[in-house]
Automatic annotation (TrEMBL), chain A:
It comes from Potamilus streckersoni. Its main location: Golgi. This is Trafficking protein particle complex subunit 11. GO terms for biological process: vesicle-mediated transport. InterPro entries: TPC11, TRAPPC11_C.
From TrEMBL, chain B:
Keywords: ER-Golgi transport, Transport. PANTHER family: TRAFFICKING PROTEIN PARTICLE COMPLEX SUBUNIT 2. GO terms for cellular component: perinuclear region of cytoplasm. It comes from Potamilus streckersoni. It is found in: Cytoplasm, Perinuclear region. This is Trafficking protein particle complex subunit 2-like protein. Belongs to the TRAPP small subunits family. Sedlin subfamily. Pfam families: Sedlin_N (PF04628).
Length: 1122, 135
């Protein structure tokens, strides 16, 4: 019943003032044509909103009512709004008629032309008799006009023309036909626009004036009509604000009308019109909230005003149309820059429109009975020919409460129902839904979008376009599955399955069946599930399934034909199981995540079905990353699909009983190329049906899993209990899919014994005895030994390795790789000696690996396996001894300063800290050029061996040479040593360890004093001593000597003496001492003073001289003893 | 009172839906499901703007011709949705709030049951009775 809710085109357009151009010959006159083009072509929005029409000079305009009504007293309106009124004022009655006339001011035949023009004006005036339409004249001139006031003839002639035509001077225009035509046109246009505005203003005023004559009882309809007219005139005048005000008043009056079944349609139609105008203007005035509020008010008011019950669909159609129109208006406003939000956008209105359209369809189905009346075209003509909007064609102009003729009324209603039955409702609903989908998508409402798509799918289903329905539904099913809204998914699935049935789409049908009878918490009853499973069985056995209950019998017949034709061709199709929630679940796992190269890879495939009845599958296969294994991973069930009960057969048994998980095992030997690689499960495929007829390949990518992935909850974070595998009672939930296994090299049976005695001593050649024992059953070949000090690439530069022979040529070898060894027979041993020389202390790891090939016999197959045995041990390296070198003066007093040319002592002291006894072969000293031996060096440590915590020391006398350096290094001290073994296995070389000798400070003295003293003296025996003073300088030195008296000695010699020593000469001072007391006695102190360096030399000299001497007591005399 | 009460899990699947009348259940399911669009939008907008405590009550999600849908999201992102008829004007915002509060308390009580695994559909009789009392 769309005709009543459609809006006429004149209502939808934006009203613009109408200007009629008369006297233009646009067919034959090029100038006129160009003028016309300037007016009507290229009307950009910045030009005034006017509509132009070209009329003949003698055009008949619609007659204005001549008998102006003076009183409305006896007038009873027959309807609200006339159908032709808007069209008339938009397209027929001009606001201004412009008469174009070719006339120049200097026209030679002025009089004649003037008369002609006046005649034309007269004709137009006559035609417009009584209406307020303005008339104006435009003279088309060839010459450009002179500035105002200069052309005297023009002024005069213009005045005469005006008076002759009875035209105000304001309404006479001149259009020079020159280059600036468009500019002149625009100016003319603006003038006409003003004229048109004043015309429409006047018209509106005229209508307003009628108001005083109206009374509320009989003229209620006129209140609405008049306000509408005023508003429309104002719209033509482009005064939208005033127009809006009057439309509001019209709407207000409309709602005040008495409403009854006979006039309700008319009211609703007109209310729809006015509401449309109101909303449109609100959006135009950028007041969308006003528009929305008006629309809500409108809908709330009329929502319940259904009218005649038999024509209830009409109301729904009208409601739907209202929403649709508002949605369009809203959308239009958004395109012009309005912003909408998620909860307020056109999508809601389109959706509501669709809902009402759906309601309309249901009402139509419910009420409309096809009747045998023909002649619909005639009725349609009548509908279109009505005088007033929204009236019934069988009783036009009727305004009283009761229908005039009940029979006619009944017939009319039946006709309308008949008409409604022919409407393709789906074609109305689906575009509405799809508009809504687009809007909801735009405003971030994916779920609403999906819901609407489901509705579209359902609508296509109702519209019998099953293919499309299937397409739409399959698009959204995924999301409902993902969000686990099972009830919604089920309802979609049911429709989808019906569509699949009706289109005989085997794949979708099977897929939907698999899901519907699956583990979902669906609303399907057991009977439904049973029926579906039986149908599934029929389809797979190449029969047609039973139709779903409640389908259109006609379609079912068609579907049956389709099913019978497509059962001829074999049909194999793939269904991805992870994208649905199927009845069968699969978990595939490798039994172990690492498999040795010589063991069988074992795969277990767990299958479980959840449906009312057992299912027999035809084939199970697992595809692995390496295709060569796939031949081992197949089970084919030899029975037909209908064979019930479990039984053994040649292939295997794929008969699955609901809720009894079953496990299928495959095993194979890994290929050589996969060793140290991995084997992955690519997919698991379960086939249902036979390949010669229909076969559904159910495929799980990877290793499968639960049909419904578990939501992570606290429970799942707890560790799982260990799985106990007992056939038939295996716990599905504890089986974890495991789709990846690594193949590791075969475990080696080689034995490596390492014999050594840690800790290792720094620098020594540490002996490790490697003993390799072949414990394999067979001979091993290609035996390669590698030894490394670090696993990483970075080489250890502090550890030297050598095999068999202890050699170190200064170049560090930190790994020995792939040393070939001999083949080893079973049980045979081979041994190697490894020397390790650690240059630094600390811990290090030594890695020993042996690679070899061995033949393994498995399953009557000989596999050549590459095996590797790795051993690692940690080696701690410690220092064997500590060396402290002491520098001492000749008095064995520790010193840091030595005098040039004066001998001193260097004393290396060895502390053995090695846990092992150490044998010292020799020691040597390498001196720098600043120092020399005072005598020949011979090691005092030769052949010494030290145990832990034992010490050894030697003393070397050295003499510094004259040097310019204040401090000099002495050189190095080298020890040659080795570990002392109880019973040495191999000849072990000595190694040398170098220690640095300390540096000493040098001191240069001008003199040196020597004391010549016997080793000891005896009491009361003469003890001659001699001080020798050397002058080392090239100058004579004056020296004072002063010897202190001593209680222990009497002495003879100079107590105080002053003398000179010549350069490079010595001076002797002789004293005879006579010891008085025995024991360790202090010598008389000698003080030396050099006049050149007063007070400095004494202390230095004192240091270098012995201070004491041992005096023996007098021997006991014999006579005393006697 | 309410015509539909729903509890939706954090992952947006239904834990519990009760509708009155039951014959048009599916429509309410769709209504609740589509309202999640608005819930998600509202929650995400708040999350972006500030770290202040979000109000659990989301207010009116969206109006349809016949029903009003209200939403409430707990701190653990469990959503409550209540649908009331548009014609029912006696229910003001405050009443709806207190309904949600009641629902939340009842949900928490239900959750305290050690035999209930979070994430499973709610089968508690007490909870159901409480919901029925609001309908």
């Amino acid at each position: 019943m769309s005709w009543a809710s459609e809006l006429p085109a004149e209502l939808l357009c934006r009203p613009t003032g109408l200007i009629a151009l008369s006297g233009l010959d646009i067919t034959y006159n090029a100038i006129h044509k160009s003028i016309w083009d300037a007016f009507c072509n290229n009307r950009r929005p910045d030009r005034v909103p006017l509509q132009f029409i070209v009329v003949q000079g003698d055009h008949e305009f619609p007659k204005c009512r001549t008998n102006k009504r003076q009183s409305y007293e006896w007038y009873i309106p027959k309807g609200i709004l006339k159908t032709n009124w808007m069209r008339k004022h938009l397209n027929l009655v001009p606001a201004v008629v412009v008469i174009f006339f070719d006339l120049d001011w200097d026209e030679p035949l002025w009089k004649e032309k003037q008369m002609e023009c006046a005649t034309r004006v007269e004709i137009v005036r006559n035609s417009l008799q009584g209406s307020g339409t303005k008339v104006s004249v435009v003279l088309i001139q060839k010459n450009a006009p002179l500035p105002p006031g200069e052309d005297v003839i023009a002024v005069e002639r213009a005045a005469s023309l005006c008076s002759l035509c009875d035209l105000s001077a304001k309404h006479l225009y001149v259009l020079p036909h020159t280059d600036h035509l468009v500019g002149y046109t625009i100016r003319l246009e603006n003038a006409f626009y003003e004229l048109s505005q004043s015309y429409y203003h006047g018209e509106a005023k005229k209508v307003k004036a009628h108001r005083d004559f109206l009374n509320k009882t009989t003229h209620q309809l006129l209140f609405v009509r008049h306000q509408f007219k005023i508003a429309f005139y104002n719209e033509l005048k482009q005064d939208t604000h005033t127009a809006l005000k009057h439309y509001k008043q019209a709407y207000g009056h409309l709602l005040e009308l008495r409403m009854h079944d006979t006039n309700l349609l008319e009211i609703k139609v007109n209310a729809g019109f006015i509401n449309y105008k109101l909303c449109r203007m609100s959006f135009f005035h950028n007041a969308p909230l006003d528009g929305i509020a008006q629309f809500r008010k409108h809908i709330d008011f009329f929502k319940s005003k259904v009218g005649i019950a038999e024509l209830a669909f009409e109301h729904s159609a009208w409601m739907s149309r209202q929403f649709h129109l508002f949605g369009d208006l809203f959308d239009e406003a958004i395109k012009l820059g309005l912003t909408a939000i998620q909860t307020q956008h056109p999508g809601f209105y389109y959706q509501q429109a669709a809902n009402h359209a759906i309601a309309r369809k249901q009402l139509c189905r419910g009420f409309c009975k096809p009747s045998f009346k023909t002649d619909e075209t005639d009725n349609l003509e009548k509908m279109k020919a009505l005088d007033f909007y929204g009236q019934r064609y069988w009783r036009p102009n009727h305004q009283s409460i009761d229908p005039p003729d009940p029979v006619k009324e009944k017939e009319g209603i039946a006709d309308l129902q008949n008409l409604e039955l022919r409407v393709d409702h789906s074609a109305i609903i689906i575009p509405l839904l799809s508009s809504a989908v687009a809007q909801f998508k735009k405003y971030k409402s994916p779920r609403m979008k999906r819901y609407l798509m489901v509705q579209m799918g359902e609508e296509y289903y109702h519209g019998k376009d099953y293919q499309k329905s299937l397409m739409f539904l399959s698009k959204v099913m995924w999301d409902y599955r993902g969000e686990r809204w099972w009830p919604l998914l089920t309802s979609i699935l049911v429709i989808s399955m019906r569509c699949a049935y009706l289109t005989a789409n085997v794949k979708d049908y099977v897929s939907n069946c698999l899901e519907l009878i699956g583990p979902l918490d669906t609303k399907c009853t057991v009977e439904d599930k049973t029926r579906i499973q039986m149908n599934l069985l029929r389809v797979i056995s190449n029969d047609a399934p039973e139709p779903e209950p409640g389908l259109d019998p006609v379609c079912v017949e068609k579907a049956k034909a389709l099913w019978s034709t497509n059962s001829i061709e074999p049909c194999v199709f793939l269904i991805e199981m992870q994208s649905i929630v199927p009845l069968v679940e699969c978990k595939a796992k490798f039994k172990a995540d690492t498999v040795p190269a010589d063991a069988e890879v074992e795969i277990e495939v767990y299958l479980r079905v959840k449906c009312p009845f057992p299912v027999r599958f035809s084939k199970l296969s697992v595809a692995l990353s390496n295709q060569i294994y796939n031949q081992y991973c197949e089970i084919i069930d030899g029975h037909g699909i209908s064979a019930a009960s479990e039984m053994e057969s040649r292939g295997g048994d794929l008969y699955l009983v609901p809720d009894r998980p079953k496990v299928f095992r495959f095993s194979f030997l890994p290929a050589q190329e996969d060793v140290e690689g991995k084997i992955e499960i690519i997919d698991v495929t379960l086939e249902l049906g036979t390949r010669t007829a229909r076969c559904a390949q159910l495929r799980w990518i990877g290793s499968g899993g639960d049909a419904v992935a578990q939501i992570q909850t606290a429970e799942h974070l707890l560790p799982k209990k260990p799985v106990s595998h007992i056939e038939d009672t295996l716990n599905w939930d504890y089986v974890e899919a495991q789709g990846l296994a690594r193949v590791i090299p075969r475990a080696s049976l080689l034995d490596i014994q390492i014999e050594h005695h840690p800790p290792c001593l720094q620098n020594e050649f540490y002996v490790c005895q490697l003993t390799i024992t072949n414990k394999e059953d067979t001979v091993i070949s290609h035996v390669r030994l590698s030894i490394e000090t670090s696993e990483s690439e970075a080489e250890d530069q502090t550890t030297h390795l050598c095999l068999d022979k202890a050699i170190f040529g200064g170049h560090i070898v930190s790994n020995i790789s792939k040393v070939s060894l001999d083949e080893l027979a079973s049980g045979e041993k081979s041994s190697k000696t490894l020397f390790i020389k650690c240059l630094q202390t600390g811990n290090r790891n030594i890695f020993i690996s042996i690679n070899y090939l061995v033949e393994v016999r498995k399953k009557n197959q000989v596999i050549l396996c590459m095996c590797q045995k790795k051993e690692m041990f940690m080696l701690n390296c410690v220092e064997p001894f500590e060396v402290a070198v002491k520098i001492m003066s000749m008095k064995f007093e520790a010193t840091e300063v030595v005098q040039v040319d004066e001998p001193f002592l260097a004393m290396p002291e060895l502390h053995c800290i090695s846990p092992w006894p150490v044998e010292i072969q020799d020691s040597s000293i390498k001196l720098t050029s600043y120092v020399v031996h005072t005598d020949t060096f011979q090691s005092q440590l030769q052949g010494v061996s030290l145990k832990k915590r034992e010490c050894a020391a030697e003393c070397i006398s050295l003499k510094p040479l004259n040097s310019i350096h204040p401090t000099v290094s002495l050189g190095t001290y080298v020890l040659h040593w080795r570990r002392k073994y109880e019973n040495p296995i191999t000849e072990q070389p000595f190694v040398s360890t170098v220690f640095l000798l300390p540096t000493v400070s040098l001191e240069q003295l001008p003199i040196s004093v020597d004391l010549c003293l016997p080793a000891y003296g005896s009491v009361k025996t003469l003890l001659p001593v001699c001080y020798t003073i050397h002058n080392k300088t090239p100058y004579p030195q004056e020296i004072e000597i002063n010897v202190e008296a001593s209680d222990s000695f009497m002495f003879a010699g100079n107590k105080q003496v002053h003398f000179r020593v010549l350069p490079r000469k010595a001076y002797n001072l002789m004293y005879n001492l006579f010891p008085l007391v025995p024991g360790h006695v202090m010598l008389p102190k000698m003080h030396l003073n050099m006049l050149r360096y007063p007070g400095t030399m004494d202390l230095i000299v004192q240091k270098s001289l012995p201070t004491h001497i041992f005096i023996k007591p007098m021997g006991k005399t014999l006579e005393r003893a006697a | 009172m309410a015509v539909c009460v729903a509890v939706i899990a954090k992952e947006n699947y239904p834990l519990f839906i009760k509708t009155i009348p039951t014959e048009n259940e599916l429509k309410f399911y769709y209504t609740v499901h589509t309202s999640l669009d608005v819930v998600e939008e509202k929650v995400s907008v708040v999350g972006k703007n500030n770290n202040e405590l979000r109000e659990l009550y989301l207010g009116l999600l969206y109006p349809t011709e016949d029903y009003k849908v209200y939403g409430y999201v707990t701190n653990t992102k469990v959503k409550f949705v209540i649908v009331v008829e548009s014609s029912n004007t006696s229910l003001r915002d405050n009443e709806i709030r207190s309904m949600f509060r009641k629902l939340h308390n009842s949900y928490v009580d239900m959750l305290c049951n050690p035999f209930y695994t979070p994430g499973e559909p709610i089968t508690s009789k007490t909870f159901e009775n409480m919901v029925l009392s609001m309908m």
